[in-house]
Write a structure and sequence with these properties.
By secondary structure, the protein is mainly β. It has two helices and 51 strands.
Length: 541
């Protein structure tokens, strides 16, 4: 009897412990909930509980509570608590004036396949997107087949089917998931379906799989004409030449196909310009160097060019190969046959070591305004100073640049040439004087005008010329000639000269008479008479 009582007591204790472990905690579906005035929302206890639960509301003026259903009364916040034994759970309820309810829950599809041991999100979304409550609740009808977490991530646990239920406020929807060991491909598509490329350019084609989580996504790419466009195993295409071709992709699973039409446009291969790889070149005598042409664009079809040297005594060029001949400076020019574009390289040929140098003249006299090239004599011959330094002791009298002297004002200056170190040097004294003024002279080519500067009016007999070649020994800027066009008998030519003062000379034109119109008829009559006489004499014989 005592043993039976003890056994029953042990069973009661185990039941109590078991009940305590079942209700070790209690949770609500919301920890915080937003509702509007006169809006009712159910608070649900998650998991299995016994019927011995109680509800409490911290502020009955904000919301009413009945069996877990909360209805908003006025704006504010209240706390709803559910109790079960020694355990409880609380939800913060906010009653707001601008409450936006959930209208529905949308899914990409109502069913789908999930690979065994794979995880995939169900991708549920709330409408509208600005709803006041955005929490979704997920549950599986068969967690042993497909389980789902609070973020909507489904995991395939074993082959079979399950229903995933999604809840939000008072709305719900479901998704039927089939857990399989392989997801068959049902189709593919390609993007873009058409593409236009310029010859030499590249592009990218992308594939979309249906379903996206298909097990076998291997494909094969193919071009209908690799001479026009090529494609690699990743869908990267390259335009080869002008024309049209089709890129086709075929799936390994199901042999589904999709294609994209590619149009390749030809490049404009006309030459737009050229340049040389070097703009300056320094060589020793007999040294060679190669210049190369840079074409714009590089794929221009016509790359024919012509090379030339401005001074072949300094350096020559052949097909871009420059050969230094003797000291000095020259320009190597290349001109394209198409477009006549050109580019220039300055070539300096260095001199062997020079021992001494002198000017051809120790003293020179030049006129104001004249430009004179000063010549030097080197020792040994054919040598010269590399990068010589030219100086003028008085640049108000004359300036010097690269051996070219420009006389500015009356006076004297010393011109010096030297090397960079000042070891080799020479000087010449330059005297600048005013240029003597020549007597004014007007001449007319082919005629004797007998010009005298003191005589202002002339008469000139001419032939049938319509204009005359008039020469004046003054700068053109100082001479104005008028009336020397369409000359007729009686025409007047004026020559105005602005010398020390402005003077105008007048030439009256007289055209010589032509007697050709009288001579021709007379000659014809004479010939006719001679013929008559000859015929008459012939008859008499």
């Amino acid at each position: 009897m005592k043993k039976n009582i003890l056994f029953i007591f042990q069973i009661i204790i185990m039941i109590c412990i078991s009940i305590k472990s079942v209700y070790a905690s209690i949770n609500l579906n919301y920890t915080e909930l937003n509702i509007g005035i006169d809006v009712t929302q159910e608070l649900k206890i998650l998991g299995d509980v016994n019927s011995d639960v109680s509800w409490s509301n911290s502020n009955n003026n904000i919301a009413s509570l009945k069996n877990g259903y909360v209805t908003g009364l006025s704006t504010g916040t209240t706390y709803i608590t559910v109790n079960s034994g020694t355990y409880s759970s609380t939800c913060k309820v906010n009653v707001i004036s601008n409450y936006i309810p959930i209208t529905d829950i949308s899914l990409p599809s109502s069913s789908g396949e999930l690979l065994l041991n794979d995880t995939q999100n169900i991708n549920a979304s709330i409408n509208p997107s600005n709803a006041s409550n955005k929490i979704l609740f997920y549950s599986s009808s068969n967690p042993s087949v497909a389980s789902v977490d609070s973020s909507g991530n489904m995991t395939g646990n074993k082959i079979g089917n399950a229903i995933i239920t999604i809840l939000a406020e008072n709305k719900s929807t479901s998704y039927k998931v089939s857990v399989v060991d392989k997801i068959n491909l049902r189709g593919i598509s390609i993007s873009p379906e058409t593409m236009t490329l310029t010859e030499g350019n590249t592009g990218k084609l992308s594939i979309s799989f249906s379903p996206e989580n298909a097990t076998d996504k291997s494909v094969t790419w193919k071009s209908s004409n690799t001479g026009i466009v090529t494609v690699d195993t990743s869908g990267n295409i390259k335009a080869i030449s002008d024309g049209n071709a089709t890129i086709t992709v075929t799936s390994n699973d199901g042999e589904y196909t999709a294609s994209s039409k590619i149009t390749v446009k030809a490049l404009d291969r006309s030459l737009k310009g050229i340049s040389l790889n070097k703009t300056e070149l320094t060589l020793d005598i007999n040294e060679t160097a190669n210049l190369s042409v840079i074409y714009n664009p590089s794929y221009a079809s016509n790359k024919e060019v012509t090379w030339s040297s401005s001074n072949k005594n300094i350096a020559t060029v052949e097909n871009g190969k420059v050969t230094a001949i003797k000291p000095g400076t020259t320009e190597i020019k290349v001109i394209s046959n198409e477009g006549k574009y050109e580019s220039v390289c300055k070539v300096t040929v260095l001199s062997p070591p020079i021992e001494s140098i002198k000017f051809e003249q120790d003293e020179q006299t030049v006129y104001v305004g004249s430009i004179t090239t000063l010549k030097t004599i080197s020792n040994p011959q054919e040598t010269m100073i590399n990068n010589p330094i030219w100086t003028s002791s008085d640049e108000t009298i004359a300036t010097i640049e690269n051996g070219e002297l420009t006389a500015l004002n009356v006076g004297k200056t010393t011109i010096t040439i030297s090397d960079q170190e000042g070891k080799v040097t020479a000087s010449t004294e330059i005297t600048v004087i005013e240029k003597p003024t020549e007597d004014l002279m007007i001449t007319i080519v082919g005629y004797n005008l007998n010009f005298n500067p003191s005589i202002k009016n002339y008469t000139l007999k001419i032939g049938n010329e319509e204009s005359l070649d008039i020469k004046v020994n003054r700068d053109d800027s100082k001479v104005i000639i008028g009336g020397n066009r369409d000359l007729q008998n009686g025409s007047i030519i004026t020559i105005t000269i602005s010398d020390i003062e402005k003077t105008t000379y007048v030439i009256n034109i007289r055209k010589q008479k032509s007697y050709i119109f009288f001579i021709i008829p007379i000659a014809i009559l004479i010939i006719i008479n001679i013929i008559r006489i000859l015929k008459k004499n012939k008859k008499n014989k």
